[in-house]
Design brief:
The chain is an alpha/beta fold. Helix 3 links the parallel strand 4 and strand 5.
Length: 193
């Protein structure tokens, strides 16, 4: 895993075509010839902090699609484990347990993911919400063993139909990613070009 910023992809970078497979076996091609792609790198299956963020994306998914953006979310967990945690998500979920795509996009793992005080509030809120879901709805808990670790940092990439990287965000802690409003603003700016 690259630990320096030299491996980060800058806006304008041309992303080579990717052929990804969802946890349900469906192919996903990036870039998408018909719409922008918001490629999100999250942490592990059942990650409470990731779930908190993804709930905000799910709530506004219709709005995101109406803006011409396709959501594609990667986790560094196995597909079998991801399926039980992501079955209700209305967008493509990709398992990348070997972190192949994390390396390609320069997405890091670092202890600061959980040590930064800015993430402590979201951690408490997300754990509380997930515990309620476990008790009320039987939602599964994340595995106590995470072979690929718990210290991954999030990253967001907005890719146009030709593969040009419109914008990127490399998180400095576990809850440092684009909000839905930020994503929609980036998509609107790109449409005006």
């Amino acid at each position: 895993m690259p630990r320096d910023r030299a491996h980060r992809l800058p806006p304008g970078h041309l992303v080579a075509p990717l052929e990804l497979i969802t946890v349900d076996g469906e192919p996903v091609v990036v870039p998408d010839p018909d719409r922008l792609v918001h490629l999100q790198f999250r942490r592990f299956a059942g990650c409470p902090v990731c779930n908190l963020h993804l709930r905000s994306v799910v709530r506004r998914h219709a709005e995101i699609e109406a803006a011409g953006v396709r959501e594609v979310v990667l986790f560094h967990s196995e597909a079998d484990e991801l399926r039980e945690h992501t079955a209700d998500l209305p967008f493509a979920v990709i398992a990348d347990p070997d972190r192949r795509w994390y390396r390609t996009f320069g997405v890091e793992a670092a202890p600061r993911a959980l040590l930064d005080p800015r993430v402590w509030g979201p951690i408490l809120r997300s754990i509380t919400l997930d515990l309620v879901a476990v008790v009320r709805h039987g939602k599964p808990l994340p595995s106590t063993s995470q072979p690929n670790g718990r210290i991954g940092l999030p990253a967001d990439f907005l890719i146009d139909t030709d593969g040009r990287l419109i914008a990127s965000k490399y998180g400095s802690h576990a809850y440092d990613q684009w909000s839905v409003d930020e994503l929609l603003n980036l998509a609107r700016v790109d449409v005006r070009r």
